[in-house]
Queue: 4 jobs
Job 1
Amino acid sequence: MPRGIRNNNPGNIEINRANAWEGRVPLQSNIDGRFEQFVSYDYGVRALIILLRNYINSGRNTINRVFAAYAPPTENNTQQYISFVSDRVNIGPDEILPLSKQVLKELTQAIARMENGRDCISDKQFEAGWALVPENIRSSIGQSLYVRSEGLLAYPLSANERALVVLIENG
């Protein structure tokens, strides 16, 4: 069983004493020693969602910037990681990442796949982790509605913009 799954940490988030993740196994009980362990898989997914949200909000708002920090070349084939995630989420490595639930879901699923060698965050598991994210954080994140057209990504749409898209699509 891959380490990230065994630790209920599908993103293989490293221990950082500055991060007191909700649902983490106390450090004195963590038998891994390098990576966080969580009391349930849902809390590991939650932590990955929040970590990615924090990266994007702090200016690490492209796949290149996220993975320069998340998967540094001293430990990973960072370019391979970037290419994999970029292809998986259909967002260019230097495109600004919209802060939306859909993008966070796709990123968490791609990271978990890369870290564990298999798909290991289903839509249902993402939703369970999402439900544990505090409401004030969830409400600050755009919902899953954005338009992809010919490989381009548009930012989350307002209600008026969504209505316009529906009108255009319906002729």
Note: The radius of gyration is 17 Å.
Job 2
Amino acid sequence: MKRTDSHSFFVDAPQAVVWSTLWDTTRIAACIPGCESVVERSPMAVYDVAIRRKVGPLLIRMAVEAEVVERTEPSLIKVRGSGKDPRLRSVAVFGLVIRLRPGSAGTEIDVETEFELSGLIVSLGERLIAAQLDREMEDFVACLHDTVDSSALAAGRDTSPLPAPMKETGA
């Protein structure tokens, strides 16, 4: 089962503030649904992530390796990763692209994701899993938006009022 999503939003903060926030592992980890821990194996390059998340009646426990495959400061981050839950014989493979563009008074942020799930977890039914993945992606983007906003406030920027993140597409 494969899902893709794109979201865009604006924050009243310069790209440098947004860029710095995106590399704050603790703050970004708080935005990942089910994230229990993140260990940075190689600075700004390779991360081990422990995920524990309930999907329907099943509890997923995945050890995920995430690798930054492309980084262009201060405008682009591409991440690829995969994880396994041996108990559920399930595998997740993902891609994340975050693009930053200067806007009229801040930064435009585009977030694109690809997510592929296989194994026992898919037997729950594609609709149930797809709906949960969509909700979790929206939660991630909303948290990312709030996290960047709070960084802008800490940097002395006025971020009110800001529109909520807008979902552009879904598959």
Note: Helices lie at 15-22, 25-29, 126-154.
Job 3
Amino acid sequence: MSRLDDKGREIYDLVSTNDNFLKEINKYFNWFSSVPDSCFKGIIPLLKPYYFSSRENHMISMAFGAQLANKKPCLFMQNSGLGLSLDAIFGLHELYNTGMVMFLSNRGELKWEEDQHHFWGGITYGMLKSFDCEILDFDIDGLNVVKKAHDLYLKNKIVFIIVHRGNLDEI
């Protein structure tokens, strides 16, 4: 981490502008959904087609349905939604051996973030490592994670891409 946000708080380095990120994900995916998250607020309004979800398990289920219609879904949510999403992930994607790609914001790893996020910020990696899934890190691999995730998706893998606060424009 080497930069400050507009409020003077330490955040992770910018890995990609929203425009470059959108160009890259649109090469590989054609159906998008999320539960609102401030880390993705600059991206969500630009996703096309975009399907809003108020609950993480509903988003996972909608993505499974989109796959049945030959779409390639890409999902966005924050780490605190993992608990609610697990039954849908394992009851659909794992059970039927279908891939899934999710950009997961790792909220709570920065000291200034809201208290309710700190618990999840401390357990997200450990929790994901306990599943049979692929974990990629946007901060480490940059835009290359999109193609890597797509390639794993085509092999019916469940892929989580960790995004850290500041990696994308939050404008």
Note: The first strand starts at residue 3 and ends at 4.
Job 4
Amino acid sequence: MKRFFIGFLILTLLSIPSLFAATGSDSHDVQIDIAEIAAIALTDTTVLTLSTNNPAQAGDVPQGDTDSARYLQYTTLNTTGFTRKIQCSLDISEPGGVDLLLTLSGGIGTSAGQVTLTTTDQDMVTAIGSGNTGITATDGDNLAWVLAVTDSTALVVGSSTVTATFTLTED
């Protein structure tokens, strides 16, 4: 009985400090704001040169160059229920006898396929939800450029520079 009493006394003495320990707490709200974002960039902004080339056989139409080494990267955070799109337009018309064709593919959203560019905004990718394409050299929408010869009789030897502008906007 004495052992029981000593054990009980030791157990009671050990638990008394926790019975009288001071405690306290407080709290506050944390507001999390998700900002709307529409950021767009090309992986390479140097001048892209597309030329006409000799046809495979004399008497045939000259061939236009192609290029698919560039990418368009973007980040978009949209309001609930909204999507974005990417449009492209030229600052001036291309020289007579050629069309500048462009396909964007591989990013997020729905590609319009191959589009003939003009000075009017053309939808290139639609239905872009919130997300991002990535930042490495080959992340994003691949830009597949084609210089298409449409009328060889209208071609004039020389060089012309047009500027293609990409815009990320609400769908």
Note: The chain has a mean pLDDT of 91.
